[in-house]
Amino acid sequence: METDKKYILVTGGAGYIGSHTVVALIEKGFTPVIIDDFRNSNKDVIQRLQTITKQEIIYFNIACQDQPRLRGVLEQFPAFGVIHFAADKAVGESVEKPLKYFDNNFGSLISILELIQEYNIEKFVFSSSCTVYGDPEIIPVNEESPVSYNSPYGYTKKVCEEMIEQFIPSCPSVKATLLRYFNPVGAHESGLIGEEPDGKPNNLLPFITQTAAGIRKELTVFGDDYDTPDGTCIRDYIHVVDLAEAHVAALESLDDSKDNPVVYNVGTGKGTSVLEMISTFENITGKQLPYTIGPRREGDIKEIFANTDKVNQKLNWKSKKTIEDAIATAWSFEQYIREKRSKK
Ligand code: WQD
User: Fold this and answer.
1) Measured distance CA(299)–CA(306) in Å, rounded
2) What distance in angstroms lies between residue 199's CA and the mean position of ligand 1's atoms?
3) Catalytic pick among 7, 59, 133, 153
């Protein structure tokens, strides 16, 4: 172990947001140590990360609840910080299998929090979600907006935040940050890492790119009878590379306010509708996207986007990339994945 290195434990580091954060950490001089059991990510992401960063990636195939093995990692790589991504996150699946979500999302967090206390980790960043705002009355939402939940998944995020709030005061040396992501989209400019859902995608943009790639027959727009300008739902789509950089900003934050944990909305502060996403995709790629208007999806909310004043000011972080860039990189990644799978 080299003493001048700032090791950052990244649970779920082979996943979509985790892998992009690993790249951002290395670019800022940190040394990420990936903890991932690959239940929802591909092992070959490690090799692709090595290609992108041109350096060896430290990783361990460990589940977050396997504390004995995690202790071994922390003995070998005393971490300055921990970023906790590892969790189940499919809204629909959480409705079918709530206990799986409670066991993994709560169990993993408890295990990690115990180790943070045991090893006196200085910084803890938790992957939360705008889903904790439920169906907000007032848009844009800020960090003081009421929280609720619309699914067992959203419930786990809300309760995990509260667990951290209850626990952290017993670890005064730990500075904790809760990042409430809006809708992560896009891929790294290399085209080597991106959103790689197993099976049928849940989220809009991978469904669009898989339809354009001919994997899906057509996209179904889940309702165009909402009270929005074009009748379709509005979301705050944030480029995953911007989102990754927000995690580094949280680690580097010198925020000495007494707030601990501190909560930030991480979005663009702009709303985009489903039909706008489709038309932007068609304009960028020149490909006609086959879609039909279907019934509303259970649990969908009409509109949400972030008030980002707090993260802009306190973390000196602002999203820089555009929806166009997110869609272009997502499309490039889709083509990379198709080519890779066709060679198997
Ligand atoms: C976006 C819009 C759909 C697919 C979820 C989680 C949230 C976060 C991001 C983890 C909606 C519409 C989608 C399709 C469609 N994940 N859509 N046809 O539901 O806003 O947020 O993912 O933290 O917690 O709740 O994202 O991409 O599923 O949907 O019309 O085939 O696209 O109705 O309006 P969502 P999404």
Assistant:
1) 19
2) 16
3) 153
On whether the pTM is more than 0.85, the answer is yes
Ligand 1 atom 8, closest CA: 183
Mutate to test the pocket of ligand 1, among 89, 91, 304 (most ligand atoms within 8 A of CB): 91
Note the pLDDT tens digit of each residue in 219-228.
999 999 999 9
Q: How would you classify the pairing of strands 291-294 and 31-35?
A: unpaired
Cα separation, 50 vs 37, whole angstroms: 18
Give residue 343's pLDDT band: very low, low, confident or very high (50, 70, 90): confident
Cis peptide preceding 201, ω within 30 of 0: no
pLDDT by residue (tens digit) across 153-205? 999 999 999 999 999 999 989 999 999 999 999 999 999 999 998 888 989 99
Q: Which residues line ligand 1 (CB under 6 A)?
A: 89, 91, 129, 131, 181, 183, 202-204, 207, 219-222, 233, 235, 274, 297, 300
pLDDT reading at 233 higher than 80: yes
- For residues 286 and 303, what is the distance between their CA atoms, to the nearest angstrom? 28
Q: Phi, psi at residue 247, to the nearest 5°? A: -70, -40
Given a contact cutoff of 8 angstroms between Cβ atoms, the answer to whether 323 and 277 are in contact is yes
In tens, the pLDDT along 32-55 reads 999 999 999 999 999 999 999 999
Q: Which two tokens stand for residue 25?
A: 């950490």
d(CA 306, CA 140): 5
